UniProtKB/TrEMBL annotation:
Keywords: Membrane, Receptor, Transducer, Transmembrane, Transmembrane helix. This is Olfactory receptor. It comes from Cyprinus carpio. SUPFAM superfamilies: Family A G protein-coupled receptor-like. One of its GO terms (biological process) is G protein-coupled receptor signaling pathway. The chain crosses the membrane at residues 22-45, 85-106, 118-141, 153-172.
């Protein structure tokens, strides 16, 4: 959003990107995150658990919890898949859409040096997006296709894929 406004409407940046608008965007995203997380917790809490209650994961995620239930968990699996796809593909779709608009706007800039400056502004962010989304999506696909049989290995791959990219933020920026 920030780069879209900065590149497409640079002269109006300070009037478009106000503190109130940023607060509303942040509040909206946090509300969506809470809603995405609360429904799986409510549905998993309603399941009957009759055997082990030890979660086989490094964090108490939805999938390892509902798998402990002693009833049909197909709805919970579908809910988990929908939640994951929404959380991954929603922001990625927004990022791709905004960068498509940015690319169109940048190609209209006459000066090559100004085009390069605009692309350079976006390059670091795109690098971070790729560093985050590629390993997470790879881990998700490998897990869903059951190509990683060892659950500890899958947990390690997923943990590393969500830990390393944020640690690289300060280095890249």
């Amino acid at each position: 959003y920030d780069r879209l406004i900065a590149i497409c409407w640079p002269l109006r940046y300070s009037t478009i990107t106000t503190n109130l608008r940023m607060l509303l965007i942040i509040a909206g995203i946090w509300s969506l995150v809470v809603l995405l997380e609360i429904f799986p917790v409510i549905f998993a809490a309603r399941l009957p658990y009759c055997s082990s209650r030890e979660v086989q994961s490094c964090c108490c995620e939805h999938s390892p919890v509902y798998k402990l239930a002693c009833t049909d968990t197909s709805f919970n699996r579908q809910l988990g898949t929908a939640k994951t796809l929404t959380a991954l593909l929603g922001p990625l779709t927004f990022i791709i859409f905004t960068y498509a608009i940015v690319v169109v706007a940048v190609t209209r800039i006459a000066s090559i040096s100004q085009r390069w400056k605009a692309f350079h502004t976006c390059l670091t962010h795109l690098l971070l997006v790729l560093l985050y989304y590629m390993p997470v999506m790879l881990a998700y696909v490998l897990g869903n296709l059951r190509l990683i049989q060892n659950f500890d290995l899958y947990t390690a791959v997923l943990t590393v894929s969500v830990t390393i990219p944020p640690m690289l933020n300060p280095i890249i920026y």
